[in-house]
């Protein structure tokens, strides 16, 4: 039976947010309008209709993240897995493997990414269940060289993704939500570390691109990567 499960990558410490609002732990616990970021993230995704979660934590703050989330969401199905060392987004994603079953559909969300509208509204999950594959989400930006950038054809098929290219082929920034079939767990095992020693999410997506199984949905509403104090303040303003 196909299930939709959301994996939240919440292991990053967020060095740019150290000391912001007396933060001495992890960015995912910083309060956003009075609510810890991780809880606000779960509230957001639960509103999209998702009921099963796998939260990827880090060794130092696993216990407190479990405590904060389980207390707030006693009725949700939440599992936890630890990313022992920071080796990239695909590496974090792989830590969900023990909770993934054949035919599951996996939504990977970066814990500090927030969205003005439900990005899943335009997803045909029945088609994805039948054909498998991957879906990325993009947003037009003025500074694409600071993001992963997607090249997409007129039918929404993804042709290429480049990580922070000097000469971007488009202005479509890849945002922090992705959908994969269960084979993502096997595909991650095919990856090799990048030059910076991480298992990159773009490399995982490129496996699906090479199989002609990656499509794009372009966001029409706002998206914020709340990884700096300025962006958190911007997010709070939008959430009022």
Task: Give me the secondary-structure topology.
Blueprint: E1 4-9, E2 31-32, E3 35-36, H1 37-47, E4 52-57, H2 62-72, E5 77-82, H3 89-94, E6 105-110, E7 113-115, H4 125-131, E8 134-140, E9 148-152, E10 158-163, E11 172-181, H5 184-188, H6 201-210, E12 214-218, E13 223-225, H7 229-239
Parallel strand pairs: 1-4, 1-6, 4-5, 8-12
Antiparallel strand pairs: 2-3, 6-11, 7-13, 8-11, 9-10
Structure write-up:
The protein has 240 residues and is an alpha/beta fold. The protein contains seven helices and 13 strands. The chain has helices at residues 37-47, 62-72, 89-94, 125-131, 184-188, 201-210, 229-239; strands at 4-9, 31-32, 35-36, 52-57, 77-82, 105-110, 113-115, 134-140, 148-152, 158-163, 172-181, 214-218, 223-225. The strands form four sheets. It has a seven-stranded mixed beta sheet. The chain has a two-stranded antiparallel ribbon with strand order 2-3.
Jot down its keywords.
about 240 residues, alpha/beta, 13 strands, globular
Q: Could you give a quick summary of the protein structure above?
A:
This protein has 240 residues and is an alpha/beta fold. The chain contains seven helices and 13 strands.
Mean pLDDT: 93
Q: How many whole angstroms does the radius of gyration measure?
A: 17 Å
The largest sheet is: 7 strands, mixed
The SS-based structural class is alpha/beta
